[in-house]
Amino acid sequence: MKPLRHLEGPLAALPRENVDTDAIIPADRTREITTRLGPGLFGNWRYDRTGKEVADFVLNKPSWRDAVALVAGANFGCGSSREHAVWALADFGIRAIFAPSFGDIFKANCARNGLLAAELDKTVIARLLNMAQEPTQCRIVLDLEDGKLSTITEDIPLEISPSLRDALMSGRDEIADVLDRSADIDAFQQRERLIRPWVYFEQ
């Protein structure tokens, strides 16, 4: 996955709670491969029934067309385990989401695909939502090495587990970690063959 160490750009505000994975990427827009899902992000909100852009949706506004992060209400990413939701965000260019809470599976999928899903206090989220809706104030800087999110008015510390921080910064997922331990896995299997040969019985 693509490493995430430093991120700078517009922060888009989505002041809604319980944004589910079907809202993030509607089912009828999941037929494309992962690198073509960005156009379907928030498809039922970004476009009307004729396919025309809805002018007042945040990601269609000039100041946020190149948004690199989202700030949203509680329980963002709830609903199904649809990994396409994370792929669509990443393909659009969103690398970080800030909310008071997330759907558990969605948050895990973010970590596995190089996106930061950071839980922040509701008062901090309220300030970010207000700031992000102003074109002259919406730019943020995310520095994972220092563990902070910077706006034009404040530095916000981020509580990220060391393992997630290292994985995001190095661009390593769980598969890479397993492959790194292939020698240990082979050694374990060899020992197991001696201890429990019946498990490995081959005709």
Strand order of the largest sheet: 4-3-2-1-5-6-7
Rg from C-alpha positions?
20 Å
Number of strands: 7
User: Into which percent range does the helicity of residues fall?
Assistant: 25-40%
Cα distance, first to last residue? Answer: 40 Å
Mean pLDDT: 92
What count of helical segments does DSSP give?
8
Order of helices and strands: EHHEHEHEHEEEHHH
Overview of the molecule:
- The structure is a single chain.
- The protein is of the alpha/beta class and 203 residues long.
- The protein contains eight helices and seven strands; from the N terminus they run βααβαβαβαβββααα.
- The radius of gyration is 20 Å and the shape is globular.
What is the strand and helix layout of this fold?
Blueprint: E1 6-14, H1 21-24, H2 43-46, E2 69-72, H3 84-92, E3 96-99, H4 104-112, E4 116-119, H5 122-132, E5 139-143, E6 148-150, E7 155-157, H6 162-170, H7 174-180, H8 182-195
Parallel strand pairs: 1-2, 2-3, 3-4
Antiparallel strand pairs: 1-5, 5-6, 6-7
Which terms summarize this structure?
alpha/beta, seven-stranded mixed sheet, 8 helices, single chain
Question: What would you say about this model in short?
Answer:
The chain is built from 8 helices and 7 strands. With 203 residues, the protein is of the alpha/beta class.
